[in-house]
Structure formats: C-alpha cells, structure tokens
Amino acid sequence: MIDKVDDSKSEPLNYLNREEKLKWLMKKYGNDVIKIAYTYLKQKQLAEDVAQDVFIKCYEKMESFRNESSYKTWLIRITVNRCKDVLKSWSFKNLYFTDFFKPKQTYSSLENQFFGGEENELISKQVIELPVKLREVIILFYYQEFSIEEISDLLKINPNTVKTRLHRGRIKLKESFEGAWAISGK
C-alpha cells in the first residue's frame, strides 16, 4: 500500500491509515529528523533516540495534525523542541562533558553523510561548532532548504531575527575558515 503513494507529491495521500502514514513519514523524513537532531546534540546515539521520540509523538498526535504546514515542517518543529528539551536536561548537562575525556576522533559517518563527504569536512566541523541559534538557521536554510519565512514559523521567531542569525552565522563561518586556512598555510 505504501508503494502506491504518489511520490511526486510531498505529502502522503489521505487514504493511508495511521500506521501506513507513519511508515511513509519515517521513510521520507527519517534521515532529515536524525540530521537535525545531530546538529543540535552532536551525538549520533542521542540523535537517534530523539528521532524515535519524534516519531512516537508523531504517531500519538497524528489525528490532531491540522494541515497548517507540511508534515516535514511539523516533524522538524517536534525535533527542534525535543532537542532543546534534551539540551536543557540535567542528564545531558552532567553526562555530556564526560565525552571530553575520550580521545579525539574524526567526525561520525552521519556528519559526513549530512555534509557530503570528506571534501566538506572542514565546512561540517565549522557549522557544527557554531552556537545553536546560528547553527539551526544555517542548517535549516542551506541544508534543509527552508525559506526565511518557514524558518521563522518553525522556530517561532521574527523573520528579521532569522536574517540576522543567518548573517551572523555566515560571518562566524567566514572567520573560522580564515583562521583554519591560516593555520593550514593555504
């Protein structure tokens, strides 16, 4: 039944039941949810846990979805809120710092997949190092291809705030690239 969904449209057809709709949403947007969660949490396992939470909440609230936005926007909004909850949690604040005592490793394959491979490792590292408020708008604008208005609705902030954060994020990225190139001698 899921294979009969018209993929030329961005949303599933109304005749799908809840389980089929959830499977379709997981297949269509699962990677996006994990990638967004990873950009917030910087840990693959936490990102996967958040993705599970997001789809559980999606299943529970599917009947109350009002079609005021796309399913993708709705799922990203749930993901952002869940990530912010995790970042504020006691366990994250107190357990996350234990990662600093581990030997430094290269970035995970999820990050490489998200940013397009080894040639973009420097870019991905710099984007991930941005403060959350700047990182989220950069990711949503450039990698998820949301418009400024959509990001404004998604994050519940003024469109001018989105523009300001994009501008500041670009400046910080430029500064970090110039510093990285100076260190590497390029």
Overall 3D form: globular
User: In angstroms, what is the radius of gyration?
Assistant: 18 Å
Global mean pLDDT = 78
Q: Give the percentage of residues in beta strands.
A: under 5%
The SSE string, one letter per element, is HHHHHHHHH
**Which regions contain 5 or more consecutive residues with pLDDT less than 50?**
1-9, 96-107
Describe the structure.
The model is unreliable at 1-9 and 96-107 (pLDDT under 50). The chain has helices spanning 18-41, 44-61, 71-88, 90-95, 109-115, 121-129, 132-143, 148-155, 159-184. The termini are far apart. 24% of the residues are buried. The chain contains nine helices and no strands. The protein is globular, with a radius of gyration of 18 Å. The chain is 69% helix and 0% strand. The chain is mainly α and 186 residues long.
